[in-house]
């Protein structure tokens, strides 16, 4: 909430004023009732048509106030979520790759969509609504105290059980909510995963399995929602009963005063209407409270899952021209086995390395460790004699261009895919397209064409990804399986150019190596 108050103070002030106006008008219902009853008793006081017109004006006023207050509060909730969504997205993008990779992208997608909508309804909108209800409660209590202090105090005492309800139900409401959120998360993650592999299971006979899996996860979501609803409605039922105690209790006490000639019928009617305005906020607040409690849990969950990136080094260490990277006794193991075992090697400037080895031998892992995508290795890695753990990720990345084994084509123009939205001239883009043998797209028309991973071939995608990193003009080029999907002829031409780059160090992982390629390399690293 502090973000919202800081960013939208004017909106918050407007909302507070509108809430006060609406509360006063709503609570004045009671006075209107009293006005009608008092004046119909004695028809000579005010003509009937004046009463009707006055009431109509009042209804109109209330309508306007309601519209403006509601619109403002809901819009403010949307603005709050919009702001928070942006903040979370920037926190995600500021993460280090090693931390980002702990979640699947679908988890982040669920967080940015379903969970943000949940936050809108259950947290921000609920807080603004609760704020209004508190104002209405206070205004109603003040007017009730002014009209009849004894009755008002009795009414406030009768509302105490209802006020205590949220405290009693708090824990169970929190727990059930968080379980539903977790299950929904899991459901979204699984569904995205299934849909990403659509063709794989569609063709390879997994349809039935997918449908059954969806059913299982969906049923689980429903089960958790059922528990949550049970807790919510139990709290609401108590709430309802206690509200009735307050409302009917007021009538019974009012009847007592009428019998003793201490109150008129009109003032009891007005008072019971005032009590409705006192009990309605309490009644709704219990519900609001359960939403806010659940929403707050969700908010805390997002905050802990996507913390502000405080792990990244904040030093201004600058790197000199690349001379040498050294691996000293680098060991990396996952749960089951050692993937790298006491690796020792040097990578020298302007040398071209071919890295080969069987599938699963640790080539990609080696590159990920070198690019600080994996941090939990043992041993020492230095860049120009500096331990890479002491070099900020972005500083290291200013030296390295990286083509991942499974890269990504963005759903935008070819030009944006190449430049990644940086300022590059068409001339540069065309030149690099020619370098990677994409001559057919080396023209301005093609640059502005929309592409996606579905609309281009695997080999074309690889070449666009290569062109993308060449444009950055880095000193070290790391290419993980560039060769996959490329025909021999094209591959040979592009490899020739890569291995003839005069000023760059190349680490070239491939399964497709000919004698020709081995001859081009300065060194071979065997995994
Ligand atoms: N995130 C991970 N968690 C656990 N194990 C992993 C992870 N990534 C890779 N591995 C394991 O590490 C080993 C090395 O994988 P890596 O991807 O480095 O091999 P590779 O030599 O690049 O293989 P390929 O030639 O098939 O690309 C494999 O046995 C793999 O199962
Ligand atoms: Mg690999």
TrEMBL record:
Any one Gene Ontology molecular-function term assigned to this protein's record: ATP binding
Gene3D superfamilies: ABC transporter type 1, transmembrane domain, P-loop containing nucleotide triphosphate hydrolases
Keywords, in A-Z order: ATP-binding, Membrane, Nucleotide-binding, Transmembrane, Transmembrane helix
Domain ABC transmembrane type-1: start-end pairs: 13-294
Gene Ontology CC annotation, any one: plasma membrane
Family matches, as SUPFAM superfamilies: ABC transporter transmembrane region, P-loop containing nucleoside triphosphate hydrolases
Residue ranges of every copy of the ABC transporter domain listed in the record: 325-527
Membrane topology (UniProt): Multi-pass membrane protein
Major subcellular location class: membrane
Top-level lineage group: Bacteria
Cell location: Cell membrane
Cell wall biogenesis/degradation is among the record's keywords: no
Membrane-traversing stretches: 12-36, 48-68, 123-145, 151-169, 237-259
PANTHER family per UniProt: ATP-BINDING CASSETTE SUB-FAMILY B MEMBER 10, MITOCHONDRIAL (PTHR43394:SF1), ATP-DEPENDENT PERMEASE MDL1, MITOCHONDRIAL (PTHR43394)
Protein name per UniProt: ABC transporter, ATP-binding protein
Record organism: Lactobacillus ultunensis DSM 16047
